[in-house]
Amino acid sequence: MSVTEELIVEEDAGCSELHALIHRFDREGLERIGYTEEWSVKDMLAHLGSWCAEAVRALEQIRMGTHVRTAVDVEAKNVEFHATWKDEDVDTVRAEFFSARNRMLEEWGRLAEPNRLAQGWFRESGPKHYAEHLPRLREWADEVAPR
Q1: For 38-105, what is the HEC assignment?
Q2: This prediction's pTM
């Protein structure tokens, strides 16, 4: 299996688990602060979607040959994303996450041979990022939305 295929399999597995866990929560549970001290599940989903959207931008630029490597202030971006999405409703956040994810997969698929930079953006914004958030989401789901 190629690296491209392996990353798609990892991304799909992570997103599938994320999706299943999110479906355990009712609307109130999705908006309840406690996933972290300041975030709800909705906030976490907005965060993931925002990074998928950033990956779309980077992957498209890589494909078009216009990408310029610049330092990314991850914490500043996280604050910006939270401020942007905190007042949006759950349905909008969920739709935006899946839209950004689908666009990320589309851009990934358009790359003939993803270079290391493209692989890094895809991995960090998709499968690796989901894996960072899934353990806490599992715990929070067991606390708030037991089966």
Answers
A1: CCCHHHHHHHHHHHHHHHHHHHHHHHHCCCCCCCCCHHHHHHHHHHHHCCCCHHHHHHHHHHHHHHHH
A2: 0.95
